[in-house]
Every structure is written in structure tokens, then in C-alpha cells.
Amino acid sequence: MKNFTQIVFILLISVGNVFSQQEKGITGNNNWLRNWTEFKPNQVDYGEPTQILTGNITADVTLKKGDIYLLLGSVFVTNNATLTIQPGTVIIGDYKTKGSLTISKGARIEAKGVMTDPIVFTSNRSVKRAGDWGGVIILGDAPINRYGSGSAASYYQNLNGADYANTNYGGDNEICNSGIMEYVRIEYAGKRISSDKYFSGLLLACVGRETSINNVMVSHSAGDSYLVWGGQVNLNRLVSYKSNGTDFKFKYGSNSKIKNSLAVRSPYISSPLGSRSLEVISFDKKEEFDFSNIKTNVKAVNLTLLNDSDSLESDIKMNLVKEAIYVGQDATFEMDKSVVSGFNPAVILDNGITVNQNSLENIAFTDMYFNNCKGNIFLENNTNNEDLENWYGNAAFFNVYSKSSNTETFIDLKNSRRPDYRLRINKIIASNEVDSELSFD
Fold this sequence. Notes:
This protein has helices at residues 4-12, 16-20, 312-317, 357-360, 386-392, 406-409; strands at 51-57, 61-63, 68-77, 82-85, 90-93, 100-103, 108-112, 119-123, 136-139, 150-151, 168-169, 179-187, 192-194, 197-198, 202-205, 212-219, 226-229, 234-241, 248-251, 255-265, 278-280, 297-307, 325-327, 332-336, 339-341, 347-349, 363-366, 369-371, 377-379, 400-402, 410-412, 420-423. The strands form four sheets. It has a 26-stranded parallel beta sheet that branches. The chain has a two-stranded antiparallel ribbon with strand order 10-11. The longest helix has 9 residues, at 4-12. Residues 4-22 and 427-441 have low confidence and may be disordered. The chain is mainly beta. The chain is globular and about 60 Å long. The chain is 8% helix and 34% strand.
């Protein structure tokens, strides 16, 4: 780690003034969460289904606001068909049959809600719980770093022979367009498939960059909220609220950008498989992946990652709070102008990452606001983070460290109907001095 300070300063001094003036965390002159999000979906009565969706949709179909649709079993949109969903439409996933919706490779979804009339996917149980139904899966034709093409067949039960082809994903079309999801809510998804596997709220497998994913909220998912395998999809204004699994997970050569997005975690809700706000990895088993092709490369700008704990000190002592961000070996990650508040610690790097200049130039944290975290950036299973703190704590990165409570940090996070998670800039006492470990003794 010798000479890190001088090297970082030379690389970044020219852009320092720009970074230091930018707003951190989710942005907007107005609170963009208003009108279309729902933070207490268990109190909403969506009505009873009037139409059933089952089997394969092989021709263009429009779901209309006047009807309430029940996803019965595994529903596939195939044969290059387009599923159009009107603003305000409600689609209910069936609990008993693990209802799910899959947009197969070549097909499209046009789910374009509006701020005052979002599209809602939710549970059909009277008392709703995380994992009541499957989720939404979009399969595209963009690249992945696994050998051969992929299949999502393990997510489904009782597939017939013809349906296996509808579960395939992956190809060479970086710009493939699987449609649009805008002003959409996905509630209580993430049905358990096996002892170590769950549906995600929204799975994007090899989705290309012409696909539009904006203003989507996944709440109370038993699996990951957003799971991205390969592809080049860009994500904007996403919300993950109290997921059991990881909020935003990028794997298998995903080359994606995520911006202006929010994850709110609860210390009392977590998957036994491990849960984080953000995870960026290239592989599960290294021998199954082709690194001559692509590695996972994620750029995150203006994210707010928040652990919503009323007693952070106590929750950390009870081992209920984990790290916010995990970066794996052979992955490139850049995070800028973002807020990480209330975790233990803020970031963990895979222990296969060598702590030197070459490695850390591929993992950038700039103009960050680390607040109330018990430690900032560590190597996995290593309690000595002096080299990492020297690197990321250099003034040239413009990272800020604070010990403010959540109510002091955010504008109005206790408003149950219209919370505002934007940073309360003028009421924070912060510094760019590294505080590697807050005192919880």
C-alpha cells in the first residue's frame, strides 16, 4: 500500500471540486417516492380476481385496469409476444401454485404505469407475508459469463417438455429489448423453491440495455428484491423495502448501471442464506465461468442504503446487522455520491481480493457519505483494515464520515405514508476524517 496517498491524489485532484459539491444519496427537487410507492401494502385491499392467467401467452395480450388478474402457476409470455399492462392494473400471484410471470427470451413486457396509477403485483392471501408467490422474471438475449447458455428451469415445478425452451436466457445481443417496467410495485414475492433457493421479486437474466426499468418498488420479498444475471440493463429509481434477501444483487458478468435508488433494510428481517443491501460478484464456482468473455462491472450513483434500526447499538451486539455492500473477486465496482447508513460494517471485500493499487483501482468509492456504521471498509475475515482506510479515506476521494441518527440524517423517514429518504444536508455535522470504528461499548 506504499505511496497510495500520493497516487490517489494525483488521479483525482482535477475532479475534486466537482465531486465535493454534488448531492449525495437519492436525489430530486421533489420526493419522487410520493404517489406511486406503498410502504404498508398489507393494509391495502386490492379486491378479488376477475380473470385468470395460466399457461403460455403466445400472442399479444393487454391486461386492463378494470380487471384483477390471478397468476395461476408458472405463466410464460413466449413466441415473441408482447404483454401490455395498463396503468392501475392489479396482478395477484397465487399462493398455492407459486404463481409467477416469466417474459421468455424474444418476448416483451410493456408495463408502463404512471405516478398516480401504478401497476401492482401482489399476494392473494388475506394476511400477506414475504414469499407468498413467485415473482417476475425477464429472460433476454444479452451476454453472460457462464459457459454456454443459461436456464431458469429450476425455478419452476411440473414443466412439460416444451416449456423448458421458454426458460433459456443468454446470447450475443447486448442491446436486446425486453420491454419496459415503469411505476410498478411487486409485493410479497420470493416464494421458496428449495432449502437454499428462492424466487426474487424481479429477476433480470441477460437483459439488454434497450430494456427500460425505472420507478419499480419491490417490498417484502422473501428472496432477493432485484437479481441481475449478466446482460447490460440500466436501472433507475428502484426501491427495495424490507427484503429478506439482498436488495440489489449483480452476478455472472452483469455490466449495469444503477442510479438514484433506495434500499431500506430491517435488522429483524433477513434470509438464512445471508442478506445485504448490494452485492457485486462475478461467479459462484469459478470453474463454471469464462473470464475471457466478461466480468461483472457495476456503476452505482446516488444510492441510499439504510438500515432502519431504532436501537443500532443493541442490534449490532445481537448480530442482527451485517455489512451493506459486498464486492467479490474479479468484479469491478464504482460507487459515487451515495449514502450508507447504519451497518456493520459499511463494505466488505472478498478475501480473494489482493489489497494493492491494481485491485483497488477497480473498486472505487468516491464522494460517499458513510454514516453511523461500525467500521467502514474491510477485507472479509480480516479485522485489520488500516490499508483500506488509508486508501479510501484519502481526502482526494471526498468521502465523508458521520455519526448522525437516522432522523437527523434523512428528511422524514418516519412518515409511514409519505417517507422522504433524501439526505437532510443542512442538519448534519460531518467530516472527511476517517472514523474506522464507532464506539458501541
